[in-house]
Write a structure and sequence with these properties.
alpha/beta; 42% helix
Length: 311
């Protein structure tokens, strides 16, 4: 597709960990970028969403906005996670159609997969079996967005690419220890344990494995999908690490010397996840930053911004 006449790209969820990285990436590559924050428009309101996109008139949309939590937050808020995300996604996609957007790149989630599918998970398995119960509401809302995008492509010729995103992390993340995602939560806990001289309590057994992707690599992947992707893609690193190994790496990076307690009364979530990323790498993308280096960069960023980081 390429950049012509500084094509205008609307990025929703602009203040999040991936939103900040995407805006920087697109601007550096010659796009005119309009970042949309939650304070600019409540995407749960259809009329406001339609009016906003009619005013901005973007050529393309990278839709990252969502109500998100980690494992515990999802477990505690299944209904509201479903309802809010269905509203956000439905309104945004319809407003994009009405305003003449050429293509949407939307943020899905690997939580959309059932834990009954074989590993590595492949895009053709996305509708096979229900999502894992721990993330059922959130994942079902994301599946509904995929159904809408497929339907709109068929009826209205609205092009789309959907990224089934693994666990993202990086600077500007939300470091919520109670309801947040596992990696930023662990970074915050480790930093607090280091600076306050306290122990570190980690949920679960530590045996669960996850695929973590650095935000700068994810931003490059999303630009790749904007320029040459069509359909659904796993967006992941293609490798996995256990939570225990992640904690060990954080201990080394931070210099934490306190006690570590594994709270087995808390859930592990899905025990194992791995993804086939060949559809995305076939477009020419591959992750560039090693996990340990990205973890170090993110920990250092948080240490420098611990007072004003989002939680």
């Amino acid at each position: 597709m390429g950049v012509t006449a500084r094509m205008k790209v609307l990025v929703t969820g602009a203040t999040g960990v991936i939103g900040m990285a995407v805006q920087e990436n697109l601007t550096r590559n010659g796009y005119e970028v309009v970042g949309l924050r939650s304070t600019d428009c409540d995407l749960r309101n259809q009329a406001d969403t339609v009016a906003l996109l009619e005013h901005i008139k973007p050529d393309y949309v990278i839709h990252l906005a969502a109500r998100v939590h980690g494992l515990m937050g999802n477990l505690r808020s299944q209904g509201s996670m479903y309802f809010d995300n269905v509203q956000i996604n439905t309104n945004l996609v319809e407003a994009a159609r009405l305003s003449g957007v050429k293509k949407i790149v939307a943020m899905g989630s690997v939580a959309m997969y059932s834990d009954t599918v074989s590993l590595p998970m492949r895009e053709t398995d996305i509708w096979n079996g229900p999502p894992h119960g721990s993330e059922f509401g959130y994942a079902s809302a994301k599946r509904a967005m995929l159904a809408q995008l497929e339907s709109y492509r068929d009826q209205y010729e609205l092009e789309y690419a959907l990224a089934l995103s693994t666990n993202l992390f990086g600077p500007n993340d939300r470091f919520d220890e109670k309801n947040g995602h596992v990696l930023p939560s662990l970074i915050s806990k480790t930093y607090r344990g280091k600076t306050e001289g306290t122990g570190l309590v980690v949920w679960g057994s530590g045996l669960a494995t996850r695929d973590f992707l650095y935000s700068l690599d994810a931003a490059e992947a999303l630009r790749t999908l904007l320029e040459s992707g069509s359909g659904t893609y796993n967006m992941a690193s293609g490798s996995h690490v256990s939570i225990r190994e992640t904690v060990d790496a954080l201990v080394k990076i931070s210099g934490f010397t306190g006690d570590i307690e594994w709270d087995r009364s808390k859930p592990d979530g899905q025990v194992e996840r791995s993804y086939d990323i060949s559809r995305l790498t076939d477009l020419g993308w591959s992750p560039k930053v090693k996990f340990e280096d990205a973890l170090h960069k993110t920990y250092d960023w948080y240490a420098a911004h611990s007072e004003d980081a989002r939680r």
